[in-house]
Amino acid sequence: MARVLIADASIDTRRMMREALEAEQRLEVVDDVDDPGEVQQCIGPLNVDLLLLDRDLPGGSAYDLAAKLRAQHRHLGLIMTGNTPSINDLRQAMQAGSDDFVPKPFDAVTLSQSVSSVLRKVEQRRQQMAAAEMGLGSVPSKVVAVYSPQGGVGKSMLAANLAVVLARESGRPTVLVDLNLQFGDIDLMLNVTPERTIAAVIQRLNQLDPDLMESFLTEHEESGLKVLAAPARPEYADTITVFVVEKVLQVLRERYTYIIIDTPSFLQDTTLTALDNSDQVILLTALDLLALHNTKTALAMMEKLRYGPDKVKLVLNRSNADVGISVDDVEQTLEYDISAFIPSDGRVAVTSVNEGDPFVISQPRTQIAQSIRKIAWQVVMDREQEFLDENPEAAAPPVKRRRGGGLLGRR
After folding, report:
1. Residue spans of the chain under pLDDT 70
2. Torsion angle of the four alpha carbons 170, 174, 179, 183, in this order, in degrees rounded to the nearest 10
3. Closest by alpha carbon to 175, among 242, 247, 261?
4. If 0-12 CB within 10 Å is exposed, 13-18 middle and 19+ buried, where does residue 404 land?
5. CA-based angle 277:279:281, to the nearest 5?
6. Residue 55 contacts residue 62 (beta carbons within 8 Å)
7. Residue 304 CB-density burial (10 A; 0-12 exposed, 13-18 middle, 19+ buried)
8. Helices 36-43 and 62-72 sit at what angle, rounded to 10 degrees?
9. Which of 156, 157, 246, 152 is nearest to 198 (CA)?
10. Considering only CA atoms, which of 194, 218, 189, 216 is closest in space to residue 205?
């Protein structure tokens, strides 16, 4: 039987919630309070499984209280409530660790559905914690956003092949999210036919949990990779809000070790949300003056957002192209170290896209495929040495460096 604590400023609301919840035999309301201090005192001693927390609880920020409780009690289920919540309210609730937000006034059915969904999460957390204590714990989830401010540099190619490598070689559950909401093409690159896309998530957002999320994912059979496809039509893009992106990533973290996001080049709100919620950003550029100019602007933006070198990894595509620009030119211009290189191989890359067959599977021994594997091991899995032990030739950079001046300062 799940133990529930109600914290709400209104005595009438507390009574209504208690009556609705106690009507279900699987639930026990252990107490109802109206003071933040009482909440903190009750959670541990009363062995609370689920907290219903009023956003307007007096005596301090309910969001701060939620974040504190989430840090102290990892298993705790948390549902925030409040009248006519704004997008900012929902975002703050999710950032504080809330599992759901139920708007007031609500009926018994809505409340029951939310409680059922969150209690499933509580059980999963308890199982994960128990497994960790036995030495069977899973690797913490890692969200990796692949981004480039310049279109046409191979961003989606990198995201698709990187995700396939991780799914095949890490031994961990991996999912690829196509956040190119207007013109996503990951499904074509992987030759999969999604029955549902991220647009379908919206109707079930309040009930979204890891089990329900699976119904929106499409499997790439050759690798076991799961794909959350972009909307089928461009006009659906506007229905995907910041809150939707945050909720999707939050739920995916509960089941997937590696979450790769293919982001659009355009810096819209949902793109920034994906970057903010990522543990790592792979910033892709190329030996092209316009690409380097836009990359320098992107790096300046990321510095303002306080994304450090540990988070932002610069990757150079078509690194062996003979265009009169050297690797030293790139690093001096961008004032940033390059973490990895992808050589130019148009024949392999174009054939892969046209056939919907990732080249890391179809042509795994090519230099371009090996470069993606190295990125997966070095940048994402933090296991570069094992890759180099397996592939000693990969230790050398794919291009020769020469000294040069900053390109953007040339006249």
Report:
1. 128-139, 321-323, 379, 381-411
2. 90
3. 261
4. middle
5. 90
6. yes
7. exposed
8. 10
9. 246
10. 216
Strands (E) across 117-248 are located at: 142-147, 174-178, 218-220, 225-228
How far apart are the C-alpha atoms of 290 and 295, rounded to whole Å? 8
Amino acid at 297: T
> pLDDT by residue (tens digit) across 163-200?
999 998 887 899 999 999 998 999 999 999 999 999 99
DSSP state of 376: I
pLDDT digits (tens, 9 = 90+) for 227-239: 999 998 888 888 9
Name all domains of the chain by residue range, CATH numbers in brackets: 2-133 (3.40.50.2300), 142-409 (3.40.50.300)
Is residue 99 a contact partner of residue 77, using CB atoms and an 8 Å limit? Answer: yes
Q: Say which residue the tokens 């988070």 belong to.
A: 311
* Number of residues that make up the chain: 411
pLDDT confidence of residue 144: 96
Relative to beta strand 225-228, strand 218-220 is antiparallel
Beta strands in 218-337 (DSSP E): 218-220, 225-228, 258-262, 280-286, 312-317
Query: Tokens representing 116?
Result: 């059922």
- Find, among 346, 337, 344, 345, the residue nearest to 401 by Cα: 337
